[in-house]
Design goal:
elongated
């Protein structure tokens, strides 16, 4: 579930970047290059659509981020318990010998 939410966050982020880049800023922005497309919907309707899209994507990004925080895999502590039990079993069955292995002569080839 966490992976799905992460992918949704990535998609929403990329879409938000694209919508913000298309918006008309003080300098004209990328939207000024699409004068012909503005005649189809009208300049004001295009600006309203881009503003609504920006707010919608911002809210979606916030919701996805909160959902990711809830869905993130959590440490339960069971792995530590299993690890400790395995170590105890190994120590009981095979004593640990910390001596260095005998040195081999290099002449024995």
């Amino acid at each position: 579930m966490y992976v799905v939410i992460s992918i949704l966050i990535l998609i929403a982020s990329v879409l938000m970047v694209l919508v913000v880049l298309v918006q008309n800023s003080k300098g004209g922005g990328l939207a000024s290059n699409f004068a012909a497309s503005n005649q189809f919907m009208g300049v004001r309707q295009t600006a309203d659509f881009l503003e609504k899209a920006t707010w919608t994507l911002a809210v979606a990004l916030l919701v996805f981020s909160l959902a990711a925080a809830v869905a993130i895999p959590k440490y339960t502590g069971d792995a530590h318990k299993v690890d400790t039990e395995l170590r105890e079993q190994i120590e009981k069955t095979a004593p640990v010998d910390f001596q260095a292995p005998p040195a081999q002569d290099q002449d024995e080839e």
